[in-house]
Write a structure and sequence with these properties.
The complex is a heterodimer of chains A (about 140) and B (about 850). Chain A is about 65% helix and about 10% strand. Chain A has 5 helices and 2 strands; from the N terminus they run ααααββα. In chain A, strands 1-2 form a two-stranded antiparallel sheet. In chain A, helix 1 runs antiparallel to helix 2, helix 2 packs parallel to helix 5 and helix 4 runs antiparallel to helix 5. In chain A, about 45% of the residues are buried. Chain B has 35 helices and 2 strands. In chain B, strand 1 and strand 2 form a beta hairpin. With about 850 residues, chain B is mostly helical. Chain B has a two-stranded antiparallel sheet with strand order 1-2. In chain B, helix 27 runs antiparallel to helix 28. Chain B is elongated. The chains are: A mainly alpha (about 140), B mainly alpha (about 850). Chains A and B meet through helix 2, helix 4 and helix 5 of A and helix 28, helix 31 and helix 32 of B.
């Protein structure tokens, strides 16, 4: 596993896959994709990084504990649902906002925030499991 | 009067508010906390006094606040003579108890907390007797159980206090559950949540077919709370509480809740053969048993506790008799008992506080040193003895009235009453006279007069008992008549009078009772020895049986837990997949769903069903790939290959999804397959397993059969589902509305984040929880590995204690693998993931496995 080739190429793969995962997540509302798949792809990227370098290094590269990302995801998803309270609708009713930026229309919505929350949860959970399993015995979790 | 609504609710709520503030108040007003907080119950008492007039005028006042309007539930209160008598007793004695507590526990660091518990308890008790809605009654009933648990276990550092508290909670909560069941049953039968409505019910419940069941529920509730034999044993153990608690709980409150319930339900449950027989029977046994139990004791507090059991039996007996005079006797006795028993408990507390002991044999001649205490004790003692200047005398008179008839049952009850009263009177005399009269004995502390806070209570209560008797007409009109009317459900007229008629045999029965009591008093020591000998001969008590039952319960729970939670992954998986197989096979074959697959007349024969499918070459390729993966899983020589083969098979499934137009599903499936292979492989390297999966034939056959049954079941189920017509209403709706309503073209994603967003929120929460759990497992397994094998696992402990150290037992298959000596095992102490092969060769040795041997495919 720890060949020079793999170690050299891995960061590039990881960067590409992470960007791709975001793309998949964001386009999800109209094309195949979504937060769940995006999160899985991103988690596999982190798993690759962990294999190529080490779990500790992958953790450092993330800066934030993956489980904390997952927790933040749940919070984000729940809060996105609460926004509808302000216009008097039940929990999780979607709100849409179309922004005209430079000639094209960018739709923003609470389901998008919700989906990003799902992305964070899936990514954080799977990444933390993978990193925990990849990690060294002596490493503090 | 509209403002009465709010104020009646305030009576039940104010004590809780005061309770919440008590600890804070105590911080600032240390020596005066008791006096200040007593203002709350005192104010309630005065307010309730003000209700006497409207209650006398109208019979009852009710008040209600909307509670759950959707279900027609109101938090309703109802004040009639019975409620008012109880509420006045509770708040009046409560005020004195709060003052007493402040003095008794002066300087105690947790006095504030104690008073908070006490006030909360009082609030619960007031709510209980004032509640009209039966669910509210149940709620307050349980609140008294919880707060009394806190009070009894107040001195929580002592094991005996903890045990007493738990015992009281367990026993009274059995009754609480019965009460809830009874309340719901009654509501289902009559449609009434309100007690006042039930009392007005035409004909009551007595003739209903389920009367027996309702009666049983309510009697269990009342008997557990009011400590009737054979559930009486929690009451003496509750004496572990500080004395003010005993004085309050066992005079007018906690234990009287059951009596109150019985009195309250009399109009619609009472006056049947079953009611009379059970109540009189249990009441009699409890009366005699408690009175004898009191004679057995030498501890003053225990004597009073046992005599309380007897008094409760007496009250239950009188309610059971249900005649006019019996109910009148019950009402008077309740008041009299509350007054003298609370007073005596407080006196005993004062003696304990000042002299340092409660043992009747170690006390004597205190009258000179504590004259005021003695005076208070004498007042209360007169009540317990039932002598004329106190109200208790009239209770006894009423009890005996009309029982002197040729009817043998009445005579038997009369005999029990005389014996019980005589024994109780003797106990009262012992408690009051022994410590104060006779030669002075040396006590642990040099006794002196108790402070004002300790004396106020007993003196006032003692005087109240006499005043009530001297102002007999007023007592009869204000207390007796309304209360007895409420219980009997028909107007009752008091006939209490001071004009003693010596021609009436009843007065001679009283005299006979006193003579008998005097005899018992003189022979108390011999009787005590005799009773104790009897106890020793018997060898067991309900108390020890309770311990045995509780211990049995814990052992049973331990056994069930060990049976279900044995820690062997192998068995867990077999269980899970067996259940899956059952869930698949039972509906298919048991319920005949498989019939959908049989050939029908239109299709003619099997040939039409088994036609060779028309498929493209690439589709055949995918099927072949899936089959190859499947074959590889079974045939793979070692575990790692199997895992990879599972991945191949899963990829083929993802391809099938892709071909048949479910790109989202295919996408997800592919990612899941990749990650499961990675994670499974990682898990494999973490477990010190043999590279190959050796297993005995029977395991192989068992797992293989299970796999075949599950696979065949899923396949058949899918075929059955496909053979039916698909209801497309839902998917049509989603297709039609996805873009206009939810602004998204990908229906799968729109459903996930918009239509069923709440579901998804739940799912991601579960996902995170599962991730956290896995992390904890990995961490604990790591700790286990760092410790072993230099420290051998602890020997399994028999009995339920071993639950705490539930270390999974290594499965039998590992035993032959452990040939490697301890030297090699030590080398494998810290196997790195890369060195798994080596570690596996060295053998897992005696390292305790956090997870069992094999892992089947788990979906992340």
């Amino acid at each position: 596993m720890n060949t020079v080739i793999f170690r050299t190429i891995a960061p590039m793969i990881v960067a590409t896959v992470l960007v791709f995962s975001l793309y998949i997540c964001l386009r999800g509302h109209n094309e195949p994709g979504g937060g769940f798949i995006g999160g899985l792809i991103a988690a596999s990227a982190i798993a690759i990084l962990g294999m190529a370098t080490s779990a500790a290094k992958a953790r450092r590269a993330l800066h934030i504990d993956p489980l904390a990302i997952a927790g933040f995801g749940v919070l984000m998803a729940a809060l996105s649902g609460l926004l509808s309270i302000f216009n008097g609708n039940p929990f999780l009713t979607s709100i849409w906002l179309y922004l005209d930026i430079g000639g094209s229309t960018v739709p923003l919505s609470t389901p998008l925030i919700f989906d990003l929350g799902v992305y964070c949860v899936v990514f954080g959970t799977i990444a933390s499991i993978a990193l925990a399993l990849e990690g060294d015995d002596t490493e503090e979790l | 009067m509209p403002n009465i609504d709010a104020s009646i609710a305030l009576v039940a709520i104010a004590p809780f508010v005061a309770a919440a503030l008590a600890p804070l108040l105590h911080r600032f007003t240390k020596p005066w906390t008791g006096w200040i907080l007593a203002l709350v119950p005192a104010a309630i008492f005065v307010f309730l006094l003000g209700l006497i007039e409207p209650v006398l005028a109208t019979g009852a006042i009710s008040a209600r606040i909307g509670w759950v309007p959707a279900y027609g539930l109101d938090l309703s209160f109802y004040v009639d003579g019975l409620s008012l008598t109880f509420a006045l007793t509770i708040s009046g004695i409560g005020a004195l108890i709060v003052v007493y507590s402040g003095a008794y526990l002066a300087g105690h660091p947790h006095l504030g907390r104690f008073l908070a518990f006490l006030l909360a308890f009082m609030g619960a008790m007031l709510g209980l007797v004032l509640a009209d809605n039966m669910l509210a009654l149940f709620m307050f009933w349980e609140l008294t159980a919880v707060t009394s648990f806190l009070l009894i276990g107040f001195d929580a550092v002592r094991a005996a206090a903890r045990r007493g508290a738990i015992q009281a909670l367990v026993i009274t909560n059995i009754g609480g559950m019965a009460l809830l069941a009874g309340v719901i049953l009654v509501q289902q039968l009559t449609g009434e949540w309100e007690l006042s409505g039930l009392s007005a019910l035409e004909g009551g419940l007595q003739s209903h077919g389920l009367y027996g069941l309702v009666l049983a529920f309510f009697l269990v509730a009342a008997f557990t709370k009011s400590a009737q034999f054979p559930l009486h044993f929690w009451l003496p153990n509750a004496m572990e509480a500080p004395t003010p608690v005993s004085a309050f709980l066992h005079s007018a409150t906690m234990v009287q809740a059951g009596v109150y319930l019985l009195a309250r339900t009399t109009p619609w449950l009472g006056d049947t053969v079953a009611w009379t027989t059970i109540l009189v029977g249990f009441g009699s046994v409890t009366l005699i048993w408690g009175a004898l139990g009191a004679l057995k004791q030498t501890d003053l507090k225990q004597m009073l506790a046992q005599s309380t059991i007897a008094s409760l039996g007496l009250l239950v007996l009188l309610i059971g008799l249900g005649t006019e005079t019996a109910i009148a006797g019950m009402v008077i006795y309740f008041v009299a008992h509350a007054l003298y028993k609370a007073g005596l408990f407080m006196v005993v507390g004062a003696i304990d506080h000042e002299a340092g002991t409660r043992d009747i044999n170690a006390l004597g001649g205190l009258a000179g040193k504590m004259p005021v205490t003695f005076a208070a004790a004498a007042f209360a003692g007169l009540g317990m003895f039932g002598l004329p200047p106190t109200i208790a005398f009239f209770a006894k008179e009423e009890m005996y009235l009309y029982l002197l008839s040729p009817d043998w049952q009445a005579l038997a009850v009369l005999a029990v009453l005389i014996a019980g009263n005589a024994l109780l009177a003797a106990v009262g005399a012992l408690v009051v006279l022994k410590p104060f009269l006779g030669p002075a004995t040396a006590t642990p502390k040099s006794a002196h007069e108790a402070p004002l806070g300790l004396l106020a209570g007993p003196v006032i209560l003692g005087i109240a008992g006499v005043v009530a008797a001297l102002w007999l007409d007023g007592f009869g009109m204000i207390v007796l008549e309304p209360a007895a009317t409420a219980i009997l459900g028909e107007p009752f007229e008091s006939h209490l009078t001071w004009l003693l008629n010596f021609a009436n045999p009843v007065i001679w029965l009283s005299v006979f009772t006193w003579l008998l009591a005097a005899l018992v008093y003189r022979r108390a020591s011999q009787l005590r020895t005799l009773l104790r000998r009897f106890d020793t001969a018997l060898g067991w008590t309900a108390d020890t049986k309770f311990d045995a039952v509780m211990f049995g319960l814990i052992r049973f729970a331990g056994a069930v837990t060990r049976l279900l939670h044995h820690g062997r992954l192998e068995v867990y998986l077999v269980t899970v997949f067996s259940m899956l197989a059952l869930a698949l096979v039972v509906p298919l074959f048991g319920l005949g769903a498989i019939g959908a697959l049989w050939p029908t007349a239109e299709l003619g024969n099997w040939g039409a069903k088994l036609a060779w499918p028309d498929m493209q070459l690439h589709e055949w390729g995918v099927i072949l790939l899936a089959l190859a993966g499947l074959g590889a899983v079974v045939a793979a020589p070692n575990r790692l290959y199997s895992i990879l083969a599972v991945g191949i098979q899963g990829t083929a499934v993802a391809l099938i999804f892709l071909i048949f137009g479910a790109p989202d599903l295919a996408f997800t499936q592919l990612m899941v397959e990749i990650l499961s292979v990675v994670i499974l492989a990682l898990v494999m390297t973490r477990l010190n397993l043999d590279e190959r999966d050796h297993r005995p034939f029977e395991d192989w056959a068992r797992d293989g059969t299970l796999a075949l049954v599950c696979g065949a079941g899923v396949s058949l189920l899918l075929m059955v589902v496909l053979s039916g017509t698909l209801d497309t209403r839902l998917s049509d709706f989603f297709i039609a509305t996805s873009v206009p309503i939810a602004h998204g073209a990908n229906i799968v994603n729109v459903i996930l984040v918009d239509y069923r967003g709440f579901d998804t929120l739940g799912e991601i929460s579960v996902l995170m929880a599962a991730g956290t759990a896995i992390l904890v497992l990995v961490r604990s397994s790591r700790k286990g590995r760092l410790l072993s094998p230099s420290t051998p696992p602890p020997a399994p402990v028999r009995g339920w204690v071993s639950l705490a150290s539930a270390e999974p037992v290594p499965s039998k298959r590992e035993v032959p693998a452990a040939k490697a000596g301890p030297v090699k095992a030590a080398k494998a102490a810290r196997p790195k993931p890369a060195a798994t092969a080596k570690a596996a060769k060295a053998g897992p040795a005696k390292a305790p496995k956090p997870t069992a041997t094999r892992r089947k495919r788990t979906t992340p």
